[in-house]
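User: Here's a protein and a ligand (1-deoxynojirimycin). What would the complex look like?
Assistant: Let me lay out the input and then the predicted complex.
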Amino acid sequence: MINRDRNWWQDAVFYQIYPRSFFDSDGDGEGDLAGITAKLDYIKSLGVDAIWSCPYFVSPKADNGYDVADYRDIDPSFGTLDDWKTMCDEIHKRGMKFFMDLVVNHTSDEHPWFRSAAASKESPYRDYYIFREGKEDGSEPSNWMSVFGGSTWQYNEPTDDYYLHLFAVKQPDLNWQNPKIMDEVADIIAYWAGLGVDGFRLDAFNNSDKDQTFPDVETMPGEKYGFASQHYVSRPGVDEYIHELYKRELGPKGLVTVVELAYCPVQKAIEYCDPAREEFDMLYFFDMLNFDQEGYDKFKPIPFKVSDLKKTMNHWISNLHGKGYCALFIGNHDQCRALSRFGTTGKYRERSAKTLANAMYFLEGVPYVYQGDELGMTNTDFQSIDEYNDVEVHNYWNEHVVEKGEDPEKVLEILRERSRDAGRAPIPWDDSPNGGFTTGTPWLRLGAEYKTVNVQAEDKDSDSVLNFYRKLLKVRHGKQCIIRGETEWIDLDSDEHMSYLRKAEGETLASLNNFTDHEVTVCLPEGFNADKAEILLSNCGRDTLGGTTVKMSPWECVTAIWKD
Ligand code: NOJ
């Protein structure tokens, strides 16, 4: 299905599926494509317009599918190409679009291109990757640190040199400076477009161009490797590569893109989404995930301040206003659960889950709901290191516990709080064993609260987090003040609430959100006639704002709208 209206996504809501944890149709303990198909009515019932699924291609799953060994086929654990076609058809039949994850900054080391390239310097695929001799003393070609810890270089014995991997050892980076990579990727896009995909989420694409002189970088005291993002983030090649893909495949076929943007300055991001430059459509930036930690170290959490969240969102949204759209999300598969991080898991768990959604999803941008957030899922309570699956977790454990001898209990505590696996638990569909996710043994531990926090229970409860999400997505659609209105923050510096107005075409929407467990007063601007405001959404049964001074209960949220 080719959709030539390139702007349909501006009023859309996306649902993000992590397929391994979504629904297992065949009892092998892992979610699969037939499982997604089986649950499409559920997804549709949320009121979403498009689905983005994380990868399910042939892969050794060293990074859970972000290490692709065959771009044109489905990993047997997820099903077959026919299952994919059925899933895609069924999505379209329900009037939704389908985005796939395009992981082309790197491949798996088990991809036939890499196998050949690593085996011999004469391989026709040698220049598909980035190999370099070691330094004179035999050490790595540079001291760059990998995103998952350790060096970005891995020694390759058969050719006595090193290959570059910005991520895991099993994820060698493609050499985009070789024009053959462009041809290969354009072909992959054409292949999936031919099968009906509507768009792509481009994984790590702003890392595709590297400074191939590989200069050494500064390191932190006592560290061997240093953070080298200035040499591989948002370099000029990225614009060239995506523009060519746009010209060749994306533009003519009406395919829409959302690009993952790590460490990207907003001015560069504005260029990326400028329609005249024909590069990317939506921006999936990361800054909102980096402020409650020390620098770029996700495993060094610092207390969450709602004022930091607001300032980060304000920075992006005010700069992008009228120029482009960012993805609005509170969590994804690379994060612990948003509720455990920004909300509360105690007495006000449900209220705070609703408040997070209400605070984030009325901002300017395109909402992305990560599976399970609509249920109010919290972090998984892992008991030991053996229960974790993620390569990032195991690398961290090896570095900190095995090599540096740090206290294992303290490291486990950090991992429970901040690991990616904490947010990857299987979706609980009901209160039966394994939450109805699988009849087999789940590949990852289920969340502890699945007996009560599950789809079946929440579906029946009109006051559940799930039904709040349904209402929210319904009222959000079609309103100009939400799609393109200006944002006016109320008390941007407050550490107690996140509140703002959105205004367009004589209509104003107010989203007021108390982020504390005590009463908070939010003052609306002077002259506003509160009696005129219609309440669209409330998590405390509120039916009026009751004046310009709104006294809000703990973790209360409300959204109201009025005509000027
Ligand atoms: C970003 C993906 O979201 C993450 O899961 C993955 O590990 C890296 N890119 C590498 O592909």
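Summary: Residues 179-195 form the longest helix (17 residues).
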